[in-house]
Design a protein that fits this description.
Layout: E1 2-3, H1 6-28, E2 33-39, H2 43-59, E3 62-68, H3 74-85, E4 92-95, H4 105-111, H5 123-130, H6 139-150, E5 159-163, H7 170-179, E6 183-187, H8 194-198, E7 203-206, E8 223-227, E9 231-232, E10 238-239, H9 244-247, E11 251-254, H10 261-284
Parallel strand pairs: 1-11, 2-3, 2-4, 5-6, 5-7, 7-8, 8-11
Antiparallel strand pairs: 9-10
The structure holds guanine (GUN).
Length: 286
Amino acid sequence: MTLLDGKALSDKIKEEVRVEVEKLKNEKNITPGLAVVLVGDDAASATYVNSKHKSCEAAGIYSEVHTKDSSTTQEELLELIEKMNNDPKLDGILVQLPLPKHIDTTTVLEAINPLKDVDGFHPYNVGRMVSNLDAFLPATPFGVMRMFEEYNIGLSGKNVVVIGSSDIVGKPMASLLINAKATVTVCNSRTKDLASHTKAADIVVIAVGVPHLLKGDMLKEGAVVIDVGINRLDTGKLTGDADFEDCKTKCSFLTPVPGGVGPMTIGMLLKNTLKAAYLRDKRESK
Ligand code: GUN
């Protein structure tokens, strides 16, 4: 069994981005910029945002974090986004999800200029991704695709089961896999007999937020398991949606948690921010 080392791969991607950012600064006098908006006091979200900010700085990307308290109104948030849409320092805008219940997520995401939508959550980018056109791809599934590439895990003609159908992971993951010519099954909490699907899978991607849902006896011999889940147990320990010790006896490739898909997400966000800066340069050079 080979461990898919997301930490090492993400470090490599961050270094690639750092080198390209330096080149962009030297050759074009362009500094890519990212704004991250955090609304409310969700501890996990605050950790992710902090980590995004630090990684940007390490890569030479200008970064600003806007922390708003949970009573912030939708109008205030939309005003801030409008300002950021018009701010030439910013190539990317990311609103950390989930948002407080009184704010309509769709309205907020649709307010972001699609050319600055480095999360790839605006319907413009979602539509382009589904149509296999150039687009900003959501960082987590984009990171998983990069892992497949790095470890030479072929997708064409493979049976892939995606467990979870969220807008952030499951749905875009399924789209990218379909574009790569995999045969894709998407399961969710209503799926009858989940194991009957996973047992037929060459590759399982799980993103449901249920610790240790996927067991070794649900897999076929030699399956690849990509565990997107990050769950904090009562002991404080982080664990995935797959039962690692149980699955590792059956798998050919397996992602650890932590250190698997998690770190990839930030690497791909930096890539998207760099892409946004290149696109700005292309538009301005016309
Ligand atoms: N919350 C969990 N994952 C993500 C992500 O990739 N982007 C944003 N904006 N919020 C998230």
